Amino acid sequence: MDKDMTFELLEELLDKIGTYPHVSAENRVKLLKFVGKQGKEAEEQLSSILNSIDDLRLYMKYLLFDLESTRRENSYFKKLLDEKES
């Protein structure tokens, strides 16, 4: 869900809440602050998760590179041993 969609849904929610007579303007402001704070925390958590995924991708690429290098070295050393034995 992108930011625009989130803000549209929040506006709809606030409009619906505003139709109820028992919700005062003070409570609406508190609600806006709470939702804003929660949204900011959610964005920070999402950003942290995306950074972790990027780090994991990089680590996996390194592991694959290292695996291929090890296989090449292993093959090379086996070849040397075979030549030496012959």
Helix content: over 70%
For this structure, the quaternary state is single chain
The total strand number stands at: 0
Q: What structural class do you assign from the helix and strand content?
A: mainly alpha
| Shape category | rod-shaped
Low-confidence stretches: none
Characterise this structure.
By secondary structure, the protein is mostly helical. The chain is built from 2 helices and no strands. The chain has helices at residues 3-18, 25-85. The longest helix is centred in the middle third of the chain and has 61 residues, at 25-85. The protein is rod-shaped and about 95 Å long. The model has no long low-confidence stretch (mean pLDDT 81).
Keywords:
86 residues; mainly alpha
SSE layout and pairing:
Blueprint: H1 3-18, H2 25-85
Quick structural gist:
This protein has helices spanning 3-18, 25-85.
